[in-house]
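Dear Dr. H.,

I hope your travels went smoothly. While you were away I took the liberty of generating a structure for the chain from your last submission, since the lab meeting agenda had it listed for discussion. I wanted you to have the full record in hand beforehand rather than looking at slides cold. The sequence, exactly as received, is reproduced here:
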Amino acid sequence: MTAAEQVEPDTATAAKASRPVVLVLIGVFWPGHEATGPNQSIAAMATALGSEFEFRIIARDRPIGAAAPLAASQAWFWQSFADFRYCRPRPWGASGLREAIATTPHDVMVLNGFFDREFTIPALLMRRAGLVPRRPTIMSPRGEFSAGAAALAKPHKQLYLAANRRLGLLDDVIMHATVDREAEDIRRHCQWVNQILVAPNIRCLDAAFTQRDFAATSGQPLRLVFLSRIDRKKNLVYALDVLGALRVPVVFDIFGPVSDEAYWRECQTSIAKLPGNIQVNYRGAIPNAQVAATLAGYDAFLLPTEGENFGHAIFDALAAGLPVILSDQTPWTDLERQQAGWSLPLDRPEAFAGAILELDRMNANQRLDLVQGARRLAEAAVLQGDAVARNRQMLLAAISRSPRQRPEKASARPHAQQAVQDRKE
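The corresponding predicted structure, in token form, is as follows:
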């Protein structure tokens, strides 16, 4: 190493301390697994860019639907890739959110979910009113403006859109889209925004991959899996209706938290009407760490979603070598040509039934071709993407909008997992 390349220890420490601080507000529980997509998006970003930026994450102190907290709140904790601080959820604004934002100096704030009432909306209103520092801000709608999601919009969402525009809450906010189609969706519903940047979700590919022996399962019922939160947008009732039209034996396992109780009751009604050849099992939510191994035990992933900006569960399925049967409302299209599954229009439920029957008729070699095609597609999505570079550029573009303010370092931060355990005890 030449003298010019040498870095003194004090200099290295100072460089690390001078990293820009990214304050992330996200309405899901950390550590947690009930919202796989947003959790994995932020975790992957913080892991990939942690040497360049310091990530601090504010989240709810319990999973959706939980009555009691599972983590201590109003204190900072360290968990491998970021500092975390938990807040008690309330109908309008997480408890202590204003104090948490105001006392955490940061260079850029990242919001997740356009219509999120616990973090996003209160943060924008407080920022507009001068109750918290008006730092550069990035908004990630997470697919809320997709064609399917927009069709589900309720009057109160339209009222908020109008109020948002009138109050200028997005005047100096960068809107983050993960694909070009999502950028178009955002522009269509928020014509007044000044800047939209496209930065794909960062995902890593698990090196472990085991091909299955389909010959050993010959003659057994087809095993299909649904992995997502249970709400109207994910279209589980549609999937159940498709299965109800089949006459071949199928085992259908459902994984994911119930985020819409009324919709889950509709699903249960549909399940009760299914013929005897269709066996449905609700398995609940599973930790992210168990997703790959769980998905690898099925024949296909079924998700007739009404809209996804990325589809983390879809990527997980493909990475596990699991062919997917999807609606055409996701970025994962042209699946038949790539031998990775099917991408089908929602106005043709018979096409979904036909894909399942086609899969059921395949021999072991044909199914193995689908397994390999699914894995190849996941590998291509990682290798051909420039997600890390574009997320870096997005953060730097936001930070460049205002003078730098150095944050103080968080103090006394026990490991987040220990904080969770302490609260449980």
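Two observations you may find useful: The two ends are 52 Å apart (CA to CA). The longest strand covers residues 54-60.

With kind regards,
E. W.
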